[in-house]
Amino acid sequence: MGRRDALRLSLAAGAATAVTLSQAGFARAEDGATAQLTLRGHLPPGAPDFVYLPIKIPEGVREIAVSYRYDKPDVPQGTPGNALDIGIFDQRGTALGGRGFRGWSGGFRDSFVISAQKATPGYLAGPVRAGTWHVVLGPYTVAPQGMDYEVTVTLRHGEPGRTPRPEYPPERAKGRGRTWYRGDCHLHTVHSDGRRTPEEVAAAARAAGLDFLTTTEHNTTSGHAAWQGLWGDDLLVLCGEEITTRNGHYLALGTDPGTFLDWRYRATDDAYPRFARAVHRAGGLVVPAHPNCPFVGCRWKFGYDHADAVEVWNGPWTADDELALAAWDNMLVSREGWLPAMGNSDAHREGQDVGAPQTVVHADALERGPLLEGIRAGRSYLAESSKISVELRATTPGGGHATLGETLRARPDTSVDVTLTVRGAPKGATLELITDQGTMRTGTGPRLTWRTTPSQARYVRAEVRHPAQEGAGLPGAMAAMTNPVRLGDEWE
User: Which pTM does this prediction carry?
Assistant: First the structure.
């Protein structure tokens, strides 16, 4: 990178979200030849979110390989050091949401290869066509000293070969008809920053008693076609993506296979509504993930318009989840603005259990459409494992009844009996019935009942918690929780 580029980058820092540097290029070579180019540069603190390195690719290239490295100087305790992500766009361009996307590995890999026949996980196989490609760098955090980087691009010339047609999972599995289905809708494999292969995740899902899962790799669709032979009558695989913007992450859940959703924007860019609509056009749900996660770039800043559900429980129960639970509970008094809760493992590696937690959905079939409909309607509860089953029901003397995600239509003074039944609860677990006013009934054992009226409770939901740790001053970890049953006629 020359002095002029460094000046442009410094001027853009803190103002633009992206900058494109001067183009480098290769000359055409004979079949079998290998050519290599190394680009070096420096990123100052406050660098743009994305730095594009344009590379002119000639005709006759069979394979492109990219590797990179960057320095990691010592920084004061509590100060973020250097972390640099990487990906690539092909000759079709880098426009937001455009067709040129060819892969992203974040900071998980230091190299990748793309050819027509195959690609490194996280990247999409396809011809290496002539034109200007862009290696994209994402300086996630930059040390006070700045960041020195080096990117090496290697071209191998020759016949391109044929790109295999992707084999995507079917939308339906055999299932058990209309019943409860257990799923984990936030999972990672080697196609982003996970350590497990799809084969290992599928085996773990079956061992956890799951009926379905969703592949949600960070900012790439390469995992959609990676499950050949792993689905079956007992396991449905849905497609999706975790979109990791700089102001929070969200799941595109159950989208059409091959649908790419862009992540290169912040809350101030007004791009999120556009891509939320794109998720919906692709048949999927928008689900903000771990909204109170304290890590850089993870806390949700976009608000909850356009969302279909919210991931209240992410992995083993922590203080972050308590905050997400409290924020979610505050939504429930709204006639139109409440969102169903979801729980997912966000599992990346061994030691992070697939299906812990899981979302248990009541659906007409083990099929994409009915499952997404059940999640959107809140006909679901969350559980730490398949050992736990929960039923929450509200009834009136006149025969009215409602369960999770439903509304019990009744006059304000109508007597309503609420029954919570739990199977497989941990030893000593506490059962709670909670309304818009707070916890109204607490007990132990497999069953808890309470009588109320719609004038006393706009909704009822349930929690099942492990015993609290003595002296901790905090409630016990969650074992299961439900979406609400709404009470009264005012929900019309």
Answer: 0.95
